[in-house]
Amino acid sequence: MPRLTPELTYYADLAMDDVGPGPLGSRIIFNVTGGEFAGDRMKGSIVGAGADWLLAGPDGFGRLDVRATFKTVDGAFIYVQYFGLIEVTETIQGILGGADQQTSFGDQYFFTNPRMETGDERYAFVNTTFFIGQGRLMGGPRVEYQVFRLEN
C-alpha cells in the first residue's frame, strides 16, 4: 500500500487580478509576490514570475493551474507546476474579499499534484517523485501548502 511522507511546507503571498466571467467560468489570476518553502531535504524562497490562473466554476470549485520557481538556499532552481481543486466555501470567499480570516488544512477540499523538475543533481530526486499537496488560505491573501511524497 502506498504511503504519504511529509516532504515540505510552503507559503505564497498573492496579488489578485479578477479577469471576470468567461466562456469556461470566472477567471482569477493570483500572482505570486513572495514566499518560502522548507523541508528536511530542501529550503528556500519562491522567486521570479509565478501565478495561479484559477478558473472558478458554477459548481462551487476552483480549478488551479499554477507555475512557480523555487530557489534553494544553496542556489538550485526548481520549477514547480501543479493543478488542483479548491472548494470555494464562504470563508474562502471572505478571505478573497479582504477578510482577515484563515482556514485550516481539511476545512475544505483543497488538494494539488505538484510536479517538480530541476537540472541540479543535488535535488534530482524531485524529477522522479510524485507529490500530493493539501492547502489552506489565509488573509492577505496567502496560501499555504503541506506537500507529501508518495512512497511504496
Indicate the CATH class.
Mainly Beta
Low-confidence stretches: none
Amino-to-carboxy terminus distance:
7 Å
Give the helix level as a range of percent.
under 10%
Compute the number of helices: 1
Mean pLDDT over the full residue set: 97
CATH topology value: Porin
The rough form would be described as globular
- The figure for the number of domains is 1
Alpha carbon gyration radius: 15 Å
How are the strands of the largest sheet arranged?
Answer: 1-2-3-4-5-6-8-9
Helix-strand pattern, N to C? EEEEEHEEEE
Q: Biggest sheet: strands, sense, closure?
A: 8 strands, antiparallel, barrel
Tell me the fraction of residues in β-strands, as a range. Answer: over 45%
Which class best fits the helix and strand makeup?
mainly beta
Number of strands: 9
CATH architecture: Beta Barrel
Please provide a written account of the structure.
The mean pLDDT is 97. The chain has a single domain (3-151), classed as Beta Barrel (Porin), CATH 2.40.160.20. The N and C termini lie close together (7 Å). The longest helix is centred in the middle third of the chain and has 7 residues, at 90-96. Helices cover 5% and strands 62% of the residues. An eight-stranded antiparallel β-barrel has the order 1-2-3-4-5-6-8-9. The protein is globular, with a radius of gyration of 15 Å. The chain has 152 residues and is mainly β.
